[in-house]
Amino acid sequence: MNPAKRRTVIAGNWKMNFTPAQAREFIANVTPLVAGKDNCDIIFCAPYVTIAAAMEAAEGTNIKIGAENVHFAPKGAYTGEVSAEMLRAIGVEYVIVGHSERRQYFAETDETVNLRTKAALAAGMKVILCLGEVKEQRLAGITDEVVGMQTKLDLAGISAEELKNVIIAYEPVWAIGTGLTATPEQAEETCAVIRNVLADLYGAEVAETVTIQYGGSMNDANAAELLAKPNVDGGLIGGASLVPEKFAAIVNAAQ
Ligand code: PGA
Q1: Does 237 contact ligand 1 (Cβ within 6 A)?
Q2: Which of 70, 119, 202, 213 could form a disulfide with 234 if both were Cys (CB 3.0 to 4.6 A apart)?
Q3: Is the CB of residue 117 less than 8 Å from the CB of residue 97?
Q4: Is the CB of 32 under 6 A from ligand 1?
Q5: Domain map of the chain by residue range?
Q6: Which residue in the list 68, 101, 108, 171 is annotated as catalytic?
Q7: CB–CB of 120/162 below 8 Å?
Q8: In this structure, are residues 175 and 217 in contact, taking their beta carbons and an 8 Å threshold?
Q9: How far apart are CA 209 and CA 205, in angstroms?
């Protein structure tokens, strides 16, 4: 973290978990544990049908609720999809785009990730843009090239002004939901690579202001070490975001 230069953001990604009632209960349980922890932004990204209940439960707290994806078209024949305007209409401020599970299981590409990012930004939302290498790429020694290419393609056509509303989540795919965490050194090194690419695209001054999270089996036991690294500005948390005490411990590590 480097709180002097950029905001620390701890975001939960609930994935396909929690009914509206379960989300209400979770928010009620986690709220007292994170109350007053103002050194980071606290967000939970929820399944579409759960967003409204979670927002209601979080009203008046320091917790914000986001979505887990958004479509790029303003409206039309895209069965099963949800537009940026629809999310804005219910007050959603944050949205995850480009999660590796979307890329892996739902055939999203850098091109559609870029379009989704643009649609969300145009609607006035903040985007948590996920990218990261798969295991074979890390083993082949091409992690820097992969994340560099993703950063460039996913942000193509996005201005420095718009970039103020983008958080990048570096998520090595091999570390997601596997219990394998990148070492603090690996996380720091690759987050720094991404920041260097941002410096090439937008200039060093702008790059220094961008929040770059780490994601991939971040939990109560490893968060402090990861967040101690200067280029790791927060976390995108899956499994541990479903357990109030674990999530709160990560928020505490960011204080
Ligand atoms: P995990 O998920 O914390 O369960 O590894 C992280 C993510 O997918 O964002």
Answers
A1: yes
A2: 213
A3: yes
A4: no
A5: 8-253
A6: 171
A7: no
A8: yes
A9: 7
pTM of the entire structure? 0.97
Mutate which of 134, 174, 176, 213 for ligand 1 pocket (most atoms within 8 A of beta carbon): 176
Q: Is 67 in the pocket of ligand 1 (CB under 6 A)?
A: no
129-167 residue pLDDT tens: 999 999 999 999 999 999 999 999 999 999 999 999 999
**Ligand 1 pocket check for 171: Cβ under 6 Å:** yes
Written in H, E and C, the secondary structure of the chain is CCCCCCCCEEEEECCCCCCHHHHHHHHHHHHHHHCCCCCCEEEEEECHHHHHHHHHHHCCCCEEEEECCCCCCCCCCCCCCCCHHHHHHCCCCEEEECCHHHHHHCCCCHHHHHHHHHHHHHCCCEEEEEECCCHHHHHCCCHHHHHHHHHHHHCCCCCHHHHCCEEEEECCHHHCCCCCCCCHHHHHHHHHHHHHHHHHHHCHHHHCCCCEEEECCCCCCCHHHHHCCCCCCEEEECHHHHCHHHHHHHHHHCC
Instruction: Look at the block and give the residue holding tokens 């927060």.
Output: 234
> Which tens digit of pLDDT belongs to each residue from 93-125?
999 999 999 999 999 999 999 999 999 999 999
Atom of ligand 1 nearest to the CA of 175: 5
Structurally, at CATH architecture level, domain 8-253 sits in: Alpha-Beta Barrel (3.20)
The model's confidence at residue 210, banded by pLDDT at 50, 70 and 90, is: very high
